[in-house]
Amino acid sequence: MLRYLMSVVVLCGLLICAPLASQAVDPPSCLAPLFNGEDLSGWHGRPHLDPRKWSEVTDDQKRAWNEDMAEHWKVVDGALVNDGHGVYLTTDKEYGDIELLIEYKTVPRADSGIYLRGTPQVQIWDYTDESKFKLGADKGSGGLWNNSPGAPGKDPLVLADRPFGQWNQFRIVQVGARTSVWLNDRLVVDYAIMENYWDRDRPLFPRGSIQLQTHGGEIQWRNIFVRELTAEESNAWLRAHDAGDFSPLFNGRDLTGWAGAVDNYEVVDGAIQCKPGHGGVLHTTDEYGDFEVKLEFQLPPGGNNGLAIRYPGQGDAAYTGMCELQVLDNTSERYKDKLDPRQYHGSAYGMIAAHRGYLRPVGQWNYQKVTVQGSKVRVELNGTVILDGDLSQVTEFMANRPHPGKDRTKGYFGFAGHNDPVRFRNIEIRSLD
Q1: C-alpha–C-alpha distance, residues 312 and 319, integer Å
Q2: Long-range contacts at 2-5 (CB < 8 A, ≥ 24 apart)
Q3: pLDDT tens digit string along 174-224?
Q4: Is residue 370 scored above 50 in pLDDT?
Q5: Which of 141, 179, 256, 291 has the fewest CB atoms within 10 Å, measured from its CB?
Q6: Domains in the chain with CATH codes
């Protein structure tokens, strides 16, 4: 675990975060306070509500929820105190990738939690309450309790709760849907995917509010700090957790080890770049069957490229290879209302559509991991799984054009350029055969 902590690029030249003291503290210089210790500024009242329905809420409903908040939430001696009833305390601001520090103290039989991106939840409850042992209370707090049964992260790895009357300390790091939780300096959730409780068929939302849930008993909160992670920090966090027996495919200097359209690519600032106005497939000299590849890419406005999967060395990678995974700035006006769902970033071109909304802003580096096993392809973008499909099950194709190469079991990995200066770096691969 220490490797993970040390690997992340951090502000202030510190470890990603030092543990909180056991009393009220001034915010660390690289984190922002979410609670000022005096009033509820920056928060509003909201019940258990699908974030997608927030835009439908009327002003009268919002007013009533804020009145409810004022009734059940108080500030006492620099701490937020809830009486066990009422709406949840919700940040006005929405967050994406974050590091969150928070302390809480509760009472027997209470039940609470922390919603991330408006989604339940990092669980808090009475680990001594035998009536809830069948629900997992005996395993302790900190788990992603609303994950599916048996899913990673649902139950905490260790029981780390302190006795009632003492303050507990959470540290939460969330990048995409990848979530790690420390309770009282003990790792209880290790890089697990937080599921979208509101729609199990879709990934966790890209952004959302932080909510403090409460029901069943008094709970107090204090020392609440947050830091929004930069793209570089998030990518470093993801790359560190994907460490293993990967082999580099690119030396950062030249195109040694690559074949195909070598003349149409160049090395710029330590990255492979498709030359403007050029294209074709730049591919590895080795072939792969089942494999996993991780890389970073940077899109220019409207940029278009692709990852060639099990490419035979000739022809259009989207058709002669197993598939081409789109690398595309589909936010560009250039493509507005012109794309089939199976053309958006991360899609298996013309066959399986990827989930949208998880690309970083144009110009920032994105981190992507692709896993190919048999006929199955999985794409994880910036910590969120945006495609997980089986090409052998595809029977409908864009424009009714079949993909004769989709059942290939071996081939080259590469980049399918389409005239735009898309860049790739930190490219590593490992065989799963």
Answers
A1: 10
A2: 3/240, 3/243, 4/180, 4/191, 4/237, 4/240, 4/241
A3: 999 999 999 999 999 999 999 999 999 999 999 999 999 988 899 999 999
A4: yes
A5: 256
A6: 2-236 (2.60.120.560), 245-431 (2.60.120.560)
